[in-house]
């Protein structure tokens, strides 16, 4: 049951990352082998039985998780915690059993791959001691629900999570921005500190039982390379794109200083986090109006305004997203998608508004869960979430353990690279924008800057969330140093600083959904780079010869066929093979992103001449 949001799995207890979240409590997992020396046939039989169990339990586990995410009560919390505990216990049992077959001679490559997925596919492993799985599941469910119910304040009045996210993008009063930032982080994050520390303690014990140094090492082992090699790969990729980010940071800091003055945003040093149009300063597109270059910055339209002008409601927005995939040759979404998805926020109950895509039966019961608003951001988010759903359907005929992305970055990148094709020309093709209003080439810098404010600005945040967690799981960062280490990494990579001093009683990481929900985050960093590789490959296949950032492959069935060929592989092959199937390359690289933004980088450097860079 893969459940992915704009940035993530939907459920707080994301304990098993294959499409079957967990295994059933019965029948019992098969014994490794009664003989002293298990054979390859024993291993094959174990894997087959394990897949049957995982598939059988996933439907009920998915339904419970869905209800809990869309109807948060004490009762649904209790059901989710119970289901999560049962799933964790069996997943750990299967993982420990799988480890016993690692050294068996004569194993097929397929069986070896599946054994590795069983052993390393648990996001938060509980140790086998009595009560551990129950405690871990209860804690993670509690933290996730606390996040879903969380509120901040604006003007002294309570404001829920969905509305505060929107307000952070539109409010320009620095005092109000500071109030929202502080209230959200204090009300949502701080209360989770001790629960999070206990989660780390329990899950690390489980990881050690499975043969890993800690949970962070387990997470890094899921990329067809060693944990150390994967950490080195992320550092290499960051070095490739860091100069682009620093150029953007310098330019945005200068513009914020011009808007707010030295007392709010100094000309040098880090940027104040609450001024960037996003609660976590992870994407800056909401303040494009502040930084837009004169002349080139006036694009002549706003997607949200276009949607409103054309009478779009949330359902019609989702229909438009479906239309993009249909234009590539993908089958329409099933009727159950429209009957069962949460497209708008219910008025009568608490829900987790964080956008996510769900696959409840590993076949055709795909859904999205959103609190959709009629604006440009949610229009992009819809294209992203549907990418997960079409990926899920493409690999539905794979064995259970292969019903997942080639790696978790792939799953996030599919919808993102489709969303890159939301160009002015695409908007014309679907009737949202009049052809006469398509920006001329002299507006390209504005188009690129608007994209960079989200795509490039996100990169260091996408990297540091797990760098922090890896160090927490390894013990380098202790509980009393959680907050200081978080802010140090935010400064090191993002060049941002909180609007007020934060002491050790705070827990700002908890104010980001993926931390209390225990969703690995490096996938989003990888996805930001992979999407440009996918996009460049699709544009080449479509025969596009103009500027890369103006390419739309909407309506191209050849691109759709080649894309589907990659998606159908699921996780059955090492990710370099899946990458090569669509792009021709076996290596993730920042080169395609750098090429896409090359005109902007040159322009930014010219604007920044004589201004101090870095922080």
Approximately how much helix is present in the residues?
Answer: 55-70%
Straight-line distance between termini: 43 Å
**Gyration radius, rounded:** 23 Å
Calculate the mean pLDDT score and round it. Answer: 91
List the helices and strands and how they pair.
Blueprint: E1 3-5, H1 40-70, H2 74-99, H3 109-120, H4 132-149, E2 151-154, E3 157-160, H5 161-170, H6 174-189, H7 193-209, H8 215-220, H9 227-260, E4 271-272, H10 288-291, H11 303-309, H12 314-327, H13 335-340, E5 356-359, E6 366-369, H14 376-394, H15 408-419, H16 424-429, H17 444-474, H18 482-494, E7 496-497, H19 522-541, H20 557-568, H21 575-583, H22 591-596, H23 598-607
Parallel strand pairs: 4-7
Antiparallel strand pairs: 1-5, 2-3, 5-6
Would you write up a description of this structure?
- The protein is 55% helix and 4% strand.
- It has helices spanning 40-70, 74-99, 109-120, 132-149, 161-170, 174-189, 193-209, 215-220, 227-260, 288-291, 303-309, 314-327, 335-340, 376-394, 408-419, 424-429, 444-474, 482-494, 522-541, 557-568, 575-583, 591-596, 598-607, and strands at 3-5, 151-154, 157-160, 271-272, 356-359, 366-369, 496-497.
- The protein has a 3-stranded antiparallel sheet with strand order 1-5-6, with helices on both faces.
- α2 (74-99) packs across α4, α9 (227-260) crosses α17 and α14 (376-394) crosses α15 (408-419).
């Amino acid at each position: 049951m893969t459940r992915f949001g704009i940035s993530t799995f939907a459920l707080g207890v994301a304990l098993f990352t294959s499409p079957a979240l967990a295994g059933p409590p019965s029948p019992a997992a098969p014994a490794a082998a009664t003989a002293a020396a298990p054979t390859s046939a024993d291993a094959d039989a174990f894997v087959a039985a394990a897949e049957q169990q995982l598939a059988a339990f996933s439907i009920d586990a998915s339904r419970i998780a869905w209800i809990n995410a869309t109807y948060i009560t004490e009762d649904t919390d209790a059901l989710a915690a119970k289901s999560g505990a049962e799933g964790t216990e069996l997943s750990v049992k299967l993982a420990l059993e799988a480890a016993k077959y690692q050294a068996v001679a004569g194993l097929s490559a397929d069986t070896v791959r599946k054994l590795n997925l069983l052993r390393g596919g648990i996001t938060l492993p509980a140790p086998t001691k009595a009560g551990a799985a129950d405690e871990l599941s209860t804690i993670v469910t509690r933290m996730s629900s606390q996040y879903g119910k969380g509120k901040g304040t604006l003007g002294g009045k309570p404001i829920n999570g969905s509305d505060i996210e929107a307000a952070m993008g539109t409010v320009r009063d620095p005092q109000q921005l500071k109030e929202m930032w502080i209230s959200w982080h204090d009300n949502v994050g701080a209360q989770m500190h001790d629960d999070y520390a206990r989660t780390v303690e329990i899950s690390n014990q489980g990881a050690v039982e499975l043969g890993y140094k800690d949970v962070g090492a387990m997470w890094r082992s899921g990329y067809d390379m060693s944990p150390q090699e994967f950490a080195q790969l992320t550092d290499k990729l960051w070095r490739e794109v860091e100069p682009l980010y620093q150029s953007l940071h310098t330019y945005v800091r200068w513009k914020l200083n011009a808007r707010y003055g030295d007392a709010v945003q100094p000309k040098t040093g880090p940027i104040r986090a609450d001024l960037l149009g996003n609660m976590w300063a992870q994407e800056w597109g909401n303040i494009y109006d502040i930084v837009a270059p004169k002349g080139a910055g006036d694009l002549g339209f706003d997607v949200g305004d276009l949607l409103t002008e054309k009478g779009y409601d949330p359902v019609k927005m989702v229909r438009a997203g479906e239309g993009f995939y249909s234009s590539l040759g993908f089958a329409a979404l099933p009727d159950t998608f429209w009957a069962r998805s949460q497209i708008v926020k219910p008025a009568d109950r608490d829900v987790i508004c964080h956008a996510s895509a769900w696959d409840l039966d590993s076949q055709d019961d795909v859904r999205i869960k959103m609190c959709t608003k009629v604006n440009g951001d949610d229009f992009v988010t819809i294209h992203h979430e549907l990418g997960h759903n079409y990926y899920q359907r493409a690999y539905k005929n794979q064995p259970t353990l292969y019903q997942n992305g080639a790696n978790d970055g792939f799953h996030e990148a599919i919808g993102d690279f489709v969303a890159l094709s939301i160009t002015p020309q695409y908007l014309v093709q679907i009737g949202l924008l009049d052809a006469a209003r398509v920006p001329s080439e002299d507006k390209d810098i504005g188009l690129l800057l608007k994209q960079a404010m989200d795509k490039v600005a996100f990169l260091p945040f996408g990297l540091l969330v797990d760098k922090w967690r890896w160090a927490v799981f390894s013990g380098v960062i202790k509980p009393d140093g959680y907050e200081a280490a978080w802010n140090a990494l935010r400064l090191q990579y993002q060049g941002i600083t909180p609007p007020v001093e934060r002491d050790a009683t705070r827990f700002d990481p908890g104010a980001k959904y993926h931390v209390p929900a225990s969703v690995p985050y490096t996938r989003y960093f990888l996805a930001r780079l992979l999407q440009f590789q996918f996009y460049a490959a699709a544009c080449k296949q479509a025969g596009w010869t103009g500027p890369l950032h103006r390419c739309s492959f909407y309506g191209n069935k050849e691109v759709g066929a080649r894309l589907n060929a990659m998606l159908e592989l699921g996780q059955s092959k090492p990710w370099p093979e899946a990458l090569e199937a669509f792009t021709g390359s076996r290596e993730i690289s920042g080169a395609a992103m750098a090429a896409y933004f090359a005109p902007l980088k040159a322009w930014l450097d010219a604007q920044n001449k004589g201004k101090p860079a870095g922080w």
